[in-house]
Amino acid sequence: MSSERLRIALTKGRLQDKSVELFEAMGLDCAPIKDPGRRLVHAIPNYPMDAVLAKAPDVITYVEHGVCDLGVVGKDTILEKGGAFYEVLDLNFGRCRFALAVKEGSDFYGTYKTRRIASKYPEVTRAFFEKKGMDVDIIKIEGSVELAPILELTDAIVDIVETGATLKANGLVPIETVAEVSARLIVNTASMKLHKAQITDFIEKCERELERRA
Ligand code: PRP
Questions:
Q1: Which of 14, 90, 156, 183: CA 20 to 30 A from 78?
Q2: pTM here?
Q3: Cα(161) to centroid of ligand 1, in Å?
Q4: The domain that contains 58 carries what CATH number?
């Protein structure tokens, strides 16, 4: 393996700890990522890789532009933002789903009027209803999307459901799964050629650990 270092972008928050857990199980020393202080770039001492922590859409931006060779990001962000990169592995953590949910007792399909849907993911929502050939009005919400049907702004929401507790607490029920979601390993297309040996080594390490867990 050459001495060049790879750079990986990790999604901050929910996926961060799971990514670190995976990398540690692969033998990577992640102490610098676990105790970041104010630093933004973390060198892994025993593997030729530097890690940066970023918000999910930024992980895709950095990988697409090739300033990071690899990234760990949720399928939810990939579906919403799209982009040109290789999605090489389902990392099998951060599992949840996109669901269409309505107020309990409401008949979403029982009307001919154009339905209004609230979502933080307008592109995922658009693609879902386009596939059904259904014309809907999509309203982008930035915060707690569950509020929109409660306030009667919309007939339904498309949102991430993990345990279902948030829907339940707000009198909403999921009526359809829009897509399954989990963390994915993505790779910049040029890096895949330029750093083939190093990237293959990393992917194989990930695969071995994922197989061990299966
Ligand atoms: C997500 C999602 C739901 C909640 C679902 O929000 O938007 O509100 O999790 O989880 P549950 O099914 O286990 O209740 P998150 O907490 O990620 O916050 P966000 O609004 O910043 O996306």
A1: 156
A2: 0.95
A3: 7
A4: 3.40.190.10
